């Protein structure tokens, strides 16, 4: 009887030893896969940055500044020198052209785009995170198209890069428009090559919220998006260059309800780190969530288990 149980004991001991070796091999393999995943994530971020730079969604930097400086210098050289005249005439001309001087000042200090021979901007305008196609037209007589901090010009259109609502890890170009629907603004967010996933509503926040809810359903419970609805920011209306171009329109000062634009310090979160607006910030959250949901690699078994005879 003792011989029977002894043979069973030895058989079970051999199986346990075999399982211990298999578990150690699996631990090593999982560790190698995790290392390869980290390297793949870094390579993907690098490729995304190169792709965005190739498609024109990053600042050109020093080249833009040098080009603007050259354009300004040639413009100054081409302008004829004004002749000196009586003091009264100088006062009259300066008072009469105060508005034009103020516009020129805004244009020269904040200009990040090319202009034609009449001083009007050439579209599309690359503003790093958005591509501006049309500024639209301000409607000052209708209070639905402006409020205390925002102005919604009819015909305004931009494109920007963000995650596809059905495939969050795939990059997608969104077209954002503001239209006039019987005296009420209609905001639209249209994904490229996917007309079935158009988000529209009477406010920019409604469109942005619909996009975030669709993304959350696609991500399921693996990744939780922050509940930060910022429609005007997604539409690019918080961009300083867009706001400067709005100030240059003749009907800007006639908007009765409008007081001032929100400054960058008043935003809740920087745009380049906001996963509800920035594609790269969203991909970072998805990668971190996937990393935390991976099975934990346990420590290797103690050496005492390998000493079984």
UniProtKB/TrEMBL annotation:
Keyword set, alphabetical order: Nucleus
Xref: SMART domains: FYRC, FYRN
Where are the stretches annotated Disordered? 62-103
PROSITE patterns linked to this entry:
FYRC (PS51543), FYRN (PS51542)
Q: Does the keyword Metal-binding apply?
A: no
- InterPro entries in UniProt: FYrich_C, FYrich_N, INO80E_N, TBRG1
Q: Which lineage?
A: Eukaryota, Metazoa, Ecdysozoa, Arthropoda, Hexapoda
Which source organism?
Answer: Glossina morsitans morsitans (Savannah tsetse fly)
Chief location of this protein within or outside the cell: nucleus
From start to end residue, where is composition biased (Basic residues)? Answer: 81-91
Residue ranges occupied by any INO80 complex subunit E N-terminal domain in the UniProt entry: 5-51
**The protein's name:** INO80 complex subunit E N-terminal domain-containing protein
Where is this protein found? Answer: Nucleus
- Gene Ontology BP terms: regulation of cell cycle
Is the keyword Protein transport assigned to this protein?
no
- Kindly state one GO CC term assigned in the UniProt record: nucleus
């Amino acid at each position: 009887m003792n011989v029977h149980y002894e043979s069973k004991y030895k058989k079970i001991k051999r199986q346990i030893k075999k399982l211990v070796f298999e578990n150690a091999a699996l631990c090593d393999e999982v560790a190698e896969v995790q290392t390869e995943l980290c390297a793949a994530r870094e390579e993907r971020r690098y490729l995304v940055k190169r792709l965005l730079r190739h498609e024109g969604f990053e600042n050109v930097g020093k080249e833009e500044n040098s080009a603007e400086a050259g354009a300004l210098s040639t413009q100054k050289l081409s302008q004829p020198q004004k002749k000196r005249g009586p003091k009264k005439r100088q006062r009259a001309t300066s008072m009469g052209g105060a508005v034009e001087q103020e516009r020129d000042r805004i244009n020269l200090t904040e200009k990040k785009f090319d202009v034609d021979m009449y001083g009007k901007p050439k579209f599309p305008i690359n503003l790093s995170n958005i591509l501006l196609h049309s500024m639209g037209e301000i409607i000052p007589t209708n209070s639905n198209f402006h409020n205390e901090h925002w102005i919604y010009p009819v015909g305004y259109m931009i494109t920007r890069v963000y995650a596809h609502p059905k495939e969050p890890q795939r990059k997608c170009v969104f077209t954002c428009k503001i239209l006039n629907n019987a005296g009420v603004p209609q905001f639209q967010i249209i994904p490229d090559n996917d007309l079935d996933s158009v988000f529209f509503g009477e406010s920019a926040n409604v469109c942005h919220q619909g996009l975030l809810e669709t993304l959350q359903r696609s991500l399921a419970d693996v990744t939780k998006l922050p509940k930060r609805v910022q429609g005007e920011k997604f539409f690019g209306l918080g961009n300083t260059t867009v706001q400067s171009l709005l100030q240059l329109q003749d009907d800007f000062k006639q908007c009765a309800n409008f007081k001032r634009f929100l400054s960058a310090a008043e935003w809740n979160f920087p745009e380049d780190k906001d996963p509800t607006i920035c594609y790269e910030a969203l991909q970072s959250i998805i990668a971190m969530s996937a990393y935390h949901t991976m099975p934990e690699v346990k420590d290797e078994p103690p050496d005492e288990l390998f000493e079984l005879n």
